[in-house]
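Predict the 3D structure for this chain.
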Amino acid sequence: MDFPILSTLIFLPLVSSLFIFLSKGQNNNSAIYISLFSSLATFILSLFIWYSMDYSSADFQFLEEQSWINDFIKFKLGIDGISILFIVLTTLITPICIISCINSVKDRVKEFLIAIMILETFMIGVFCSLDLVVFYLFFEAGLIPMFLIIGVWGGPRRVYSAFKFFLFTLLGSVLMLVAIIAIYWITGTTDVTQIYEIKIPKEYQNLLWLAFFSSFAVKTPMWPVHTWLPDAHVEAPTAISVLLAGILLKLGVYGIIRVNYGIMPNEVYWFAGGLAFLGLVNVIWGGLCALAQTDLKKLVAYSSINHMGYSLLGMAAVVAAGAMNGGDLKAAQAGLSGAVFQMFNHGTISAMLFILVGVVYERAHHRDIDGFGGLASQMPVYTGITALAFFAGLGLPGFSGFVSEAMCFIGAFPVFRTIVILSTIGILLNAAYFLWAFQRVFFGKLNEKYKDMEEINGLELFTVIPLAVITLFFGIYPGPYLDLIKATMDQIIEKVEFVATYDSV
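Done. Predicted structure below.
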């Protein structure tokens, strides 16, 4: 295909931001219509790309390449099974965020929508980039609109949270920039596809792995560099919490798979134990912190830390394919596929949870769990939808989260049995904090202050139902997802298997 479809996909939201800036409609209606039309068009285009992909190939598809800086750096784009999954997730959640902000954002609506459109461009750019410099620019550029959104439209402690978010992520990114410079010095290129074919000398791999990993760990986020996340969520508007949990947290794990696993498969084998341990810490620590919260939004934020721990376990399971671990290819496939699936599922489930928190916040103007009570009698439809989202979050069978978590455990168990057994405590913690919060908010005696609280309306339902449908669909039938990423997963596993087998001889 000669048409630059990936460039169109990336820059369509950016172009729309210019039209939003020039719009002059009353009550910001024109800005809302432009942003919504653009985001829906981007979503449809991403679905077309998904439909047009060759599932049987692990090669990058829809390649675009243009010389940029004296032929040293190229603007190179391409996607595979992992990329398209998160591109579709990004383009799906963005229009949902725009709809959800209609009631929650009252001031400077045009500027808010412009920031969201620009942020969408940067996020899609990360998933499409096949040059490390271009990847870095898109990865870092997303800091700017997020910083502005939290700092301008956030809550009372918005300035503190915005600066904390910015400094944490910027610190990690400095290390990534140093690593990219080092790779260019070693290989003479920043083209990802070329670097994949070059064996980086072992004496550099440890440091390069740690440099990239440190940057991606902040974005994931992993313990102990996770503390910016609850603050950012609490102060951010609902729409941005949805984007933050749904997409931005996935950039870290995506970077580890794309860069660390792709460029340095040898180090995957040696750092897997540490990755599994960090997964365990995330699962337990995130669950305990969520259990201690009285702010409903903060509870959901810590649940994100908890759920990303399962992805780390699944990612570590890839080393099961090595000869030293019995060459268990099925376990490696289950673990790595489960890790990516868990990221996708967390994107839909956490987005649904934050939208629902926003619904009750718009009515009560607070998020104190103990300040509610008995809402089930006043808001039965909202209660039912929230119950579904909570059940999905704690990973009950029939929901997509159950499938991905089970795959992560099954994949990691042959290699990290003790860690997996201990990680199952996280399932109990999930049930504890979700069910306890649900009981305090919806059951018991109705708080008289909320006897006239309005039921969830049609517009709010419209933002939640698509996510609920996806969660139920993939919980019952995950086949389309697994078919999409299988070839890419096999390619990654093959690299790690070869390295591990070679080193064991």
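The first helix runs from residue 5 to 22.
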